[in-house]
Amino acid sequence: MRRRWDLLLTVQILAIGAISLLIIFSINNSLARNQFLFWILGLFILYITSRLDYHRLKKFAAPLYTIVLTALALLLLFGLPIRGSIRWFDLGFLRIQPSEIAKAATIILLASFYGNHSARDFKNVLVSFAIVLPVAILIFLQPDIGNSLALVAIWFGVSFVADLKLRPVVLLLIILSLISLVFFETLAPYQKQRIESFLDPSHDPLGIGYNIIQSKIAIGAGEIFGRGFANGSQSQLNFLPEAESDFIFASIAEQLGFFGSGILLLVYTWFILRLVQYIQKTDRFGQLLLCGITTFFLIQFTINVGMNMGLLPVTGITLPLVSYGGSSLVVSLFMLGLAFSIIKQSDRS
């Protein structure tokens, strides 16, 4: 077991989690306790999943996808808006976010499909995109632009490993451009304003540009070594919105400075590269699964850090393993359990 278990990857995951819990604790003790419990649950799921044969997922791929698709549709019909979005089933003692589960279900179904089909055939590319499109649209209508774009990025990553060629990509980019023009008109006013605020945050500094401005202030205030643990004015005095989730990177930069946030970026990048190095060491289904999982972490890492720094529009997407949120954390650790399962079986081969 020790020979087959990747201890370095485990240390990287736990190091990221330790930074996350430290910062969440500095912002809200109660949320930190909840997140710690989610970590215990998620690590248990990771361990159980790592001991399973990932090939068995093929038979559950379609049923799981159908359940998730149904849950997303029911959410739009019966869910209650929270801060202008319908993203959670509120069970009273627990909130469940189906869009997080949808990413895992979509990765598994895409890997199952491409396990028997090649992306060199444009028909297969269209079929694979048809798998992603209903989920992406339902998430988009919540409205949640960030996670819907993340799904499209995951589709591209998995398709690339399945031998996607340049011509289909160009055709699909044209199709997506036309679709985006149509769907832009369906965006909520605040979402259109977010795009405007990205281009010019100072246009409405106390309104839609407030989040980006406060995030930049927090990051700049941290300077080299930070304001100190629990001493950042932006995160501690609630100037920074969603400091424990969407803008947790800005909270880290404010409290721990360039040094602390740089360590997180290095560990996270190292963690992603560790996953990448196993993609070529397993069978086709394992490659596709691992590529989808890696793309999931890479795209959300890029979008979240980018929006915190004002380099990308604010989309409300979480930083996996770092942002507060039970659904995001547990699903992330479940997917890492699949990664460990793939790694262990590739070692045996």
What do these coordinates show?
- The chain is mainly α and 349 residues long.
- It has one domain.
- It is 69% helix and 1% strand.
- It contains 13 helices and two strands; from the N terminus they run αααββαααααααααα.
- It has helices at 7-27, 29-50, 58-78, 98-114, 122-140, 145-161, 166-184, 189-199, 210-222, 233-236, 248-276, 284-308, 326-348; strands at residues 89-90, 95-96.
- It has a two-stranded antiparallel ribbon with strand order 1-2.
- A hairpin with a 4-residue loop joins strand 1 (89-90) and strand 2.
- The longest helix is centred in the last third of the chain and has 29 residues, at 248-276.
- The protein is globular, with a radius of gyration of 20 Å.
- The mean pLDDT is 87.
Task: Explain briefly what this protein structure is.
The protein has 349 residues and is mostly helical. It has one domain (7-348).
**H/E element string?**
HHHEEHHHHHHHHHH
Shape: globular
C-alpha termini separation:
15 Å
- DSSP helix fraction: 55-70%
Contiguous low-pLDDT stretches (5 residues minimum) are none
The largest β sheet comes out as: 2 strands, antiparallel
Descriptive tags:
349 residues; mainly alpha; two-stranded antiparallel ribbon; 13 helices; 69% helix
